[in-house]
């Protein structure tokens, strides 16, 4: 007779764990509060589902998980991006690799990924719609779960894969933390990660909707003598409240001790040009527009929406003829273009975050099995654990890898 397993949560980690355990012979009950599985998975990657990142080594993956990445060594080693690609494509969904090694379905439809894992989990498990109220522990031994309506479901082993508290409308509202606490686990205070940032400077609202490509950023920690805690090259977006976009989301993962004014983001609008090269470029543009006013001479250098902001910040009169601009004024302009700085005042609300930072302490989970060190038979997978990664498919890979490991681990009969 197989082992009775309950998996709580039918997201990426939960569906993988349920399917894996069932395929290996366990009697699996998958408990999901939503009517359909994979609700958060459906909206990832703007509805396209960035399932993973085409990393070739475990080290690359770990380096992309700034919070407790080493804890995931066994999980990644046992189920790499190449394994995930083979798993998905063998079930009829073709994948592609895009810029930044991000892996998407060729169809650009997250629904195809959700359907793939829903079919897998439903083939090897039975789904119950409900919400787990508490773990059932008798004489110090886990023996099942009790639902809100009072129904008891017996289980030898339980996998908690409920996600964090980001996107609560999808069902991720912290239930897993409550269950972990019942078992005596420490829950590191959840906070947003991969989240847009609010800034002090008002010019960001003037630039709302402007997307910058091929720029670079450097995040400075003013409490550590302006130490650079993150650098990146790529895309960002200005919003009514501040800044967002891929680079900004990744940068937010490095702002662990958020305080208003502590972090500054220095934006290099022309990172491929040295200050000297940029000065030469500006001189060339000015020579071609020698009788134009300064405000009308930057169109070839900057996006139209950015021009009035840069002119104002430069301190150079907007109606001065470009042939009257001094060398010192031009040097100031060069410095501004390579050091456009905004001051971070805080994260956007956690319900706007892609993932949750914080969760069940990794010190209390066996990294080789995902089993609790405090309560035998209890396992964890996915975002409920205190790990979070950069944007680019790394968080979903973490969910699939830990779900796979937990599913395999519960199927092993103890000797």
Low-confidence runs:
none
Percentage of residues in helical conformation: 25-40%
Tally of discrete structural domains:
2
Helical segment count: 13
**The top level CATH class name of the largest domain:** Alpha Beta
Q: Which fold name is given in CATH as the topology of the largest domain? A: FAD/NAD(P)-binding domain
Whole-Å distance between the termini? 16 Å
Key words describing this protein structure:
alpha+beta; single chain; FAD/NAD(P)-binding domain; 6-stranded antiparallel β-barrel; 415 residues; 5-stranded parallel beta sheet
Provide a quick synopsis of the model:
The protein is an alpha+beta fold and 415 residues long.
What would you say this structure looks like, in words?
With 415 residues, the protein is an alpha+beta fold. It is built from 13 helices and 19 strands. The protein has 2 domains: 4-191 and 356-411, FAD/NAD(P)-binding domain (3-Layer(bba) Sandwich), CATH 3.50.50.60; 196-347, no CATH class. α1 (12-23) runs parallel beside α6 (110-124) and α1 packs parallel to α13 (394-411). The longest helix is centred in the C-terminal third of the chain and has 18 residues, at 394-411. The radius of gyration is 25 Å and the shape is elongated. The model has no long low-confidence stretch (mean pLDDT 93).
């Amino acid at each position: 007779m197989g082992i009775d397993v309950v998996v709580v949560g039918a997201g990426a980690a939960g569906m993988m764990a349920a399917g894996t355990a069932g395929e290996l012979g366990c009697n699996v009950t998958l408990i999901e509060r939503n009517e359909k599985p994979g609700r958060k998975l459906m909206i990832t990657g703007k509805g396209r589902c960035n399932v993973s990142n085409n990393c070739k080594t475990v080290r690359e993956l770990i380096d992309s998980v700034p919070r407790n990445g080493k804890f995931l060594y066994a999980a990644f080693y046992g189920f790499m991006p190449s394994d995930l690609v083979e798993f998905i494509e063998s079930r009829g969904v073709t994948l592609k690799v895009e810029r930044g090694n991000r892996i998407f379905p060729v169809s650009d439809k997250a629904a195809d990924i959700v359907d793939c894992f829903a079919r897998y989990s439903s083939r090897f498990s039975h789904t119950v719609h409900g919400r787990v109220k508490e773990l059932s522990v008798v004489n110090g031994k886990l023996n099942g779960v009790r639902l809100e309506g009072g129904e008891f479901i017996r289980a030898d082993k339980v996998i908690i894969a409920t996600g964090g508290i980001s996107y609560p409308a999808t069902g991720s509202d912290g239930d897993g933390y409550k269950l972990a606490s019942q078992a005596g686990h420490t829950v590191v205070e959840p906070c947003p990660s991969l989240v847009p940032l609010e800034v002090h400077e008002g010019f960001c609202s003037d630039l709302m909707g402007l997307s910058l490509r091929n720029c670079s950023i450097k995040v400075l920690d003013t409490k550590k003598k302006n130490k650079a805690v993150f650098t990146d090259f790529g895309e960002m977006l200005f919003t009514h409240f501040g800044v967002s976009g891929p680079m900004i989301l990744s940068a937010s993962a490095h702002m662990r001790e958020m305080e208003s004014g502590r972090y500054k983001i220095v934006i290099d609008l022309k990172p491929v040009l040295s200050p000297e090269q940029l000065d030469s470029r500006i001189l060339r543009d000015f020579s071609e527009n020698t009788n134009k006013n300064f405000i009308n001479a930057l169109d070839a250098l900057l996006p139209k929406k950015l021009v009035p902001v840069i002119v104002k910040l430069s301190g150079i009169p907007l109606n001065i003829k470009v042939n009257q601009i001094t060398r010192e004024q031009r040097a100031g302009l060069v410095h501004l273009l390579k050091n456009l700085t905004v001051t971070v005042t805080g994260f956007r609300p956690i319900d706007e975050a892609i993932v949750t930072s914080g969760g069940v302490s990794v010190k209390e989970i066996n990294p080789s099995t995902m089993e609790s060190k405090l309560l035998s038979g209890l396992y964890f997978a996915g975002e409920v654990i205190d790990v979070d990664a950069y944007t680019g498919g790394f968080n979903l890979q973490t969910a699939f890898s830990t779900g796979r490991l937990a599913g395999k681990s519960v199927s092993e009969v103890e000797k």
